[in-house]
Amino acid sequence: MTRYVELQAATNFSFLRGASHPHELVETAAALGLDAIGIVDRNSLAGVVRAWSAVKDLGAHTTFRAFTGCRLDFADGTPSLLCYPSDREAYGRLTRLLTAGQRRCLKGECELHWEDYLQHSEGQLTLVVPPDRLDAAFEADLIMIAKALRGSVWLAASRPYGARDVHRLSKLAALAQVSGAPMVATNDVLYHGPERRALQDVVTCIRETCTIHDAGLRLEANAERHLKSPEEMARLFAKFPGAVARSVEIAARIKFDLGQLRYEYPDEPVPSGKTAIQHLRDLAWAGAEWRFAGGMGEKERATIQHELDLIEKLGFANYFLTVHDIVAWARGQDILCQGRGSAANSCVCFCLGITAVDPTKDDQDLLFSRFISEKRGEPPDIDVDFEHERREEVMQYVYRRYTRERAAIVATVIHYRPRMAIRQVGKALGLTEDVTSALSGT
């Protein structure tokens, strides 16, 4: 039985290039009988979590895997690389590499150079993506890359059903022999099934700011860049069976899985001679004297003690200290702020001044387990609202105190809303402004 792993699949998180959601790629690959799929969006890991979650949704019985990877495009002319971290440490190096590249640019861009990759290449399994033109310059680059990454580098090859497919594969096989980077089969996937080709054409036109009628060679020549079965890949690479087998060999070397990531919160500065939990206990009990100035009953004491014990057991003390520090600073600057959400179930948050609701009151039906649960095994999430006009002050304080190595802004991906989607697709199809306006209701 033929086995195959697709190691070059882009999702719609390769913006305006990939035309399928991560879960569509995972579900289709599993249905086709592939061993696994590698997600490699451009200079981004944005699609890998949804792909990993989609594998979990397949059920506990499945042996199918989704590998965390990334396609790296370089600013210095280095050929694009498909990078797969083989272990947890290599994943950390890959994320640091991407962070370095993105901090050099404006939002949505990433500037990487070959030397950057060399500094972060330990533990990475690397596939070189050949350009359209296999000239002497690429051969020199391939030899250089193979020499630098020997033992963990391969040359990716695909068959797009072009007129010169056979010649190109023979040339790639020769380059693999010369460089020492073995050839591995991929299909350079942009969508899960051939029916998605039309959408891929449209997003290409949006990216290139042209219409479908004048896009020309900017569009794919056919609908072949979809997932294919192991048997079909074996047929396409019949003259190079080792290229298909190598996809499985590479997959066997990838030991990293997103499930290996664990809560690793950095230490918070605390007074000399104190541990984080000792300092948190001091702050919580001091806050309790303030919150329950009229008298603290046995119920309140027991609740605070229980919460602090669980926080210590689960190792969350540093996180509570961080939130307390930020809220205390904001209040010291007369910046309005208020904790909300499940944190209102916590008496410790109440005592620290993060929330304003006493969860021990008889008229409150609040459960601490909604906030922190030993069974759930997830870190707590404390949401704090700051007044809009002064939120930037708080953000800059966080950067000053914790530095940009320990603080970052997390954002959601902006999606097309229906009206804008209609207008953009209309432009790509060459519709007039009045027609797209009528269709979109604007």
Task: Give your account of this protein's structure.
The chain is of the alpha/beta class. It has 2 domains: about 5-260, Metal-dependent hydrolases (TIM Barrel, Alpha-Beta Barrel), CATH 3.20.20.140; about 275-400, no CATH class. It has 16 helices and 10 strands. The chain has a 5-stranded mixed sheet with strand order 4-5-6-7-8. A 3-stranded parallel sheet has the order 1-2-3. Helix 1 links the parallel strand 1 and strand 2. Helix 7 crosses helix 15 and helix 15 runs antiparallel to helix 16. The N and C termini lie far apart (about 55 Å).
SSE blueprint:
Blueprint: E1 5-9, H1 22-32, E2 36-39, H2 48-57, E3 65-68, E4 70-72, E5 81-85, H3 88-103, H4 114-119, E6 124-128, H5 136-148, E7 153-157, H6 165-179, E8 183-185, H7 197-208, H8 230-236, H9 241-252, H10 276-291, H11 298-314, H12 317-332, E9 337-340, H13 347-351, E10 383-386, H14 391-402, H15 418-428, H16 433-440
Helix pairs in contact: 1-2, 7-15, 10-11, 10-12, 15-16
